[in-house]
Amino acid sequence: MAYLTEEVDPVHAARAAGTFVGGTTIGGLLGRLVSSPVAEFAGWRVGVFIVAVICGLAAMGFVKLAPAPRGFTPASGRGLNPEGNLGHRLAVNLRTPRQLVLFAQGFLLMGGFVALYNFLGFRLTSPPFDLAPSVVSLVFLAYLAGTWASSRAGAEAARFGRKRVLLASVAVMMVGVAITLSDNVFAVLAGLVIATAGFFGAHSTAAGWTGQAAPVGKAQASSLYNLFYYGGSSAVGWLGGVAFDADGWPAVAVTILVLAAIAALLAGIVLRDRPPRIC
User: Fold this and answer.
1) What pLDDT does 72 receive?
2) Residue 81: how many CB atoms within 10 A of its CB?
3) What's phi and psi for 263, nearest 5 deg?
4) Model-level pTM?
5) For residue 278, with 0-12 CB atoms within 10 Å meaning exposed, 13-18 middle and 19 or more buried, which class applies?
6) Residue 275 and residue 85: Cα distance in Å, rounded?
7) Neighbours of 171 (CB within 10 A)
């Protein structure tokens, strides 16, 4: 089944993407706030089970509450899709420089973000901080900064342009990561909040831009963005552990800063705030 979609106003698309990403921050926060205390007292298996139950309830809620799709006409048969078959739509997105740079934003920034949260906790449970694991789990409240930043970035992208908002958000993320190098726990937590806001602002901007700017196959473009996004989570999340073993938190922070700098450089050189031509 293919779909012929109506064009969505770019302003609305940017706001919608920001709102959607803001919702994902609530899910990420809830899972961590629930699982960590449960795991500490009942074991990690029980913690994972409780999160799985919450995910199942959320899925059932979506099926029940999500409105019926509107604004498109279903078209059956391969010949009725003016954008070509699935392979063509994927290939066009994978050979378009703009799309590749947007995919790289997801890979590099999400990878750095996962490394930030994966290993900052180990630092906070060690000297000079020596915080309890249940207390460290509360650092995920910083996700609320991402909830605000995601929605705000969508509005600001419509006002100032996606490229400016993306680059500004990456810069904010880098400032926050640099602040976490402090030995003052309040400064570290402030840096985490700032970095989280910057990341989610950049992520919501790049995610919304990917589909809107796709030369063909908007759905496939968004899927590829998610593939690179979670690929960065896996690959760079692991790389952060290698850096942490080598030289502790400073090595992780430098790794994140380098990845963010590469993402900003690519975006600054390649991305433009203008609609693509249909291939």
Assistant:
1) 57
2) 19
3) -60, -45
4) 0.80
5) exposed
6) 22
7) 15
